[in-house]
């Protein structure tokens, strides 16, 4: 039997990959791409405009595809911190952690910023402040007057960066809660508290920004707090998986996922379908119904993320369906470059419709060009262009930088390892091989 890569093998900076988890990133990235392309083509529902029948509804439901990305970040990034709390070992260094995470997402993001600001938004730039904000990922925190055409989806970068900055602090809080001594179960409960706190903050923010009395800018819906509950779900799974490995006691839901993995996907499919209609009202419309709808929808997408990913996180789970769907080479490749696909698909939508100064035009909001192109031709252009751009970004920028600094860190570590002094004891002549 082939060796199974466990979650404990996949730490920060590790080159080990779990095929199904690599492939699922490709599925999620392409799902987000299809959602945005369908929206731009006018196929999905939007405000008071009805989309193209059942296809429009199905595409509209692909909003479930983004939260699993945040859940995976919460899981894999919090896991070494949570495990350290449980074992009372030293936590990962905050400086090294932040440097590695910044190195992973910022170079590709800065390349995107350069292309989009120069190629699409140049005519809208009035000051250096319009450049500084997106470069430092402040453009959704300070949105007033920011040229943002082709960058509307980039709110996920400050969301991730904010989580990275919070994580060492949350891990420190978990260690404070745990104190000294205590068994693994007690310390696991302490490690779980930051996840509970973040989940509460996320639900409170969703409630606040959808109250009828809310008058803030629409960017508040894209602040990190809006989806911090998805990170919290991943952090909780990090605690459960670490506790299971340390104690040998597997949670009941993990045993169920190992025994019936396909049933979890079936349940996720049901959640996806249930999330499509909006019986309480349109989110963001400033009514009690819209608040109820947004809270219900928010909980549903979190449940979808857990159900969809959990069978992939349990090493004992075996599913031919999941292997065929996710572990194939094309999907694993898309998963490897999924960050680039996500970054570039919105700019390529603007390139297709000729929106921006590179086409001799003052850029307009994407909504003004909604429905001006067919779905399939737009999808083909955006999918091919995004994959090509993501490939170039990954192999010429992202991967070389990560490899360079990884090798440099290893050399630095090896230089600190003391070398044993040479043994000058004469070797007996009978032991010398002639």
Automatic annotation (TrEMBL):
Key words, A-Z: Membrane, Transmembrane, Transmembrane helix
GO CC entries: membrane
InterPro entries (UniProt xref): Acyl_transf_3_dom, Acyltransferase_3
Transmembrane segments: 23-42, 54-78, 108-125, 161-178, 190-208, 220-240, 252-275, 295-314, 334-354, 374-397
Positions of the Acyltransferase domain: 20-392
GO terms assigned for molecular function: acyltransferase activity, transferring groups other than amino-acyl groups
Pfam family of the protein (one): Acyl_transf_3
GO BP: polysaccharide biosynthetic process
The UniProt record lists the keyword Transmembrane: yes
Record's protein name: Peptidoglycan/LPS O-acetylase OafA/YrhL
Organism: Sphaerisporangium krabiense
């Amino acid at each position: 039997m082939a060796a199974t890569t466990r979650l404990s093998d996949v730490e920060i900076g590790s080159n080990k990959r779990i095929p199904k988890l690599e492939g699922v990133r490709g599925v999620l990235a392409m799902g987000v791409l299809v959602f945005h392309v369908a929206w731009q083509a006018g196929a999905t529902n939007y405000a008071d405009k009805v989309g193209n029948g059942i296809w429009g509804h199905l595409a509209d439901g692909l909003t479930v595809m983004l939260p699993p990305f945040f859940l995976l970040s919460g899981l894999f990034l919090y896991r070494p911190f949570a495990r350290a709390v449980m074992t009372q070992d030293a936590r990962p260094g905050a400086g090294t952690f932040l440097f590695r995470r910044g190195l992973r997402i910022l170079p590709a993001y800065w390349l995107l910023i350069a292309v989009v600001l120069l190629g699409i938004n140049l005519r809208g730039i009035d000051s250096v402040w319009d450049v500084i904000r997106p470069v430092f990922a402040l453009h959704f925190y300070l949105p007033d007057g920011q040229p943002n055409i082709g960058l509307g989806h980039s709110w996920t970068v400050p969301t991730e960066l904010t989580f990275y900055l919070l994580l060492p602090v949350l891990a420190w809080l978990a260690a404070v809660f745990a104190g000294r001594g205590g068994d693994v179960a007690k310390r696991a409960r302490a490690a779980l508290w930051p996840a509970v706190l973040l989940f509460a903050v996320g639900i409170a923010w969703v409630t606040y920004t959808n109250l009828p009395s809310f008058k803030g800018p629409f960017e508040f819906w894209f602040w990190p707090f809006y989806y911090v509950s998805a990170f919290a779900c991943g952090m909780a799974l990090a605690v459960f998986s670490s506790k299971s490995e340390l104690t040998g006691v597997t949670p009941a839901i993990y045993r169920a996922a190992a025994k019936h993995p396909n049933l979890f996907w079936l349940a996720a499919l049901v959640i996806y379908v249930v999330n499509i209609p909006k019986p309480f009202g349109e989110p963001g419309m400033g009514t009690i119904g819209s608040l109820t709808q947004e809270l219900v929808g928010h909980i549903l997408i979190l449940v979808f993320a857990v159900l969809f990913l959990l069978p992939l996180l349990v090493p004992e789970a075996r599913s031919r369906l999941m292997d065929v769907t996710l572990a194939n080479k094309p999907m694993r490749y898309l998963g490897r470059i999924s960050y680039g696909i996500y970054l570039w698909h919105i700019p390529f939508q603007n390139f297709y419709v000729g929106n921006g100064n590179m086409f001799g035009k003052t850029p307009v909001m994407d909504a003004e060009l909604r429905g001006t192109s067919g779905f399939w031709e737009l999808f083909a252009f955006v999918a091919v262009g995004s994959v090509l751009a993501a490939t170039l970004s990954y192999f010429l920028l992202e991967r070389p930088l990560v490899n360079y600094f990884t090798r440099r860190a290893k050399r630095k570590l090896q230089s600190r390892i003391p070398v044993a002094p040479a043994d000058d004891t004469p070797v007996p002549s009978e032991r010398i091989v002639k």
